[in-house]
Amino acid sequence: MDHHERRAVVREIVRIDEDLCDGCGQCVPACAEGAIEIANGRARLVAERLCDGLGACLGHCPRGAIRIETRASAAFDEQAVAAHAPQARPAHAHLAACPSAALQDFTRPGGAAAAPPAAGNGAQSALRQWPVQLHLLPPAAPFFQGADLLICATCVPVAMPDFHSRLLSGRSVVVACPKLDDQTGYEQKLAALFAHARLRSVTVARMFVPCCGGLLRLVERARRAAGSDLALDDVVVGNDGAILETNTAEAAPLGRARPRGDDFIPCLDARQGDERSK
């Protein structure tokens, strides 16, 4: 333990209310000292000595979970900040500063976004939350609690003309591409959802191409890591938007791995998909 860690002083320092924090991460890039990180779906101080107590992060919290209090704490250490700063930003921390990461629950009565946006032709969108991309979503987001969850490959909404009415309606959604996305942290995020969100159901919607079978395998690994026995409804979509396969993937007994996703439901190649859609 160094001198700064031993010496306590009474000073102003950030306090984060974990009951209010939803893990959106907007405070992380707002802290120039790198004193805040997201851990287990909540913001927390990395170390007291890294926080200068000036509160630059306060205005970036949409939930009001951060405040300044005066108490005994480790003294602010500029040398520690200088040593810590180069490692202070996770790979996707910059995303948290973008409005695309601001959580919105379109189902919350009286909220800022109490109704989903309407399409230009008068049709109502079935989207229940924002954001939708897995990189931007904290597992602790309130719209996941007790939800029917759709885990959707990126191309599915593009292929399906009735995606909103047939798959999205009534579900919270996570969108990911098993081939092109940087999947760092994906399995851990999904495992946290299985473990803590009290999900009512999970539907995986993926394209018929073999690479898209990776989405089902990713979700199955996350379910296994969380020790969940929740069944997965697996939907395979053709390039004409038709649903080619629907199956239920039951959880394997503990200690036994399920078959690979593309063994469990054979993925069709483009030629087979075209033949099935005729």
Describe the protein in words.
With 278 residues, this protein is an alpha/beta fold. The chain has two domains: 3-98, Alpha-Beta Plaits (2-Layer Sandwich); 103-276, no CATH class. Helices cover 22% and strands 22% of the residues. The protein contains nine helices and eleven strands. The strands form four sheets. Strands 8-7-9-10-11 form a five-stranded mixed beta sheet. Strands 1-4 form a two-stranded antiparallel ribbon. A two-stranded antiparallel sheet has the order 2-3. Strand 9 (201-207), helix 7 and strand 10 (232-237) form a beta-alpha-beta unit. The protein is elongated. It starts with a helix and ends with a helix.
Write the layout of secondary structure elements.
Elements: H1 3-6, E1 8-16, H2 27-30, E2 36-39, E3 42-45, E4 66-74, H3 78-84, E5 104-105, E6 129-130, E7 148-153, H4 156-159, H5 163-168, E8 172-176, H6 186-196, E9 201-207, H7 213-226, E10 232-237, E11 243-249, H8 261-264, H9 270-276
Parallel strand pairs: 7-8, 7-9, 9-10
Antiparallel strand pairs: 1-4, 2-3, 5-6, 10-11
Summarize the structure.
The strands form four sheets. The protein has a five-stranded mixed sheet with strand order 8-7-9-10-11. Strands 1-4 form a two-stranded antiparallel ribbon. It has a two-stranded antiparallel sheet with strand order 2-3. It is an alpha/beta fold and 278 residues long.
Task: Provide key terms for this protein.
Alpha-Beta Plaits, two-stranded antiparallel ribbon, alpha/beta, 278 residues, 11 strands, 22% helix
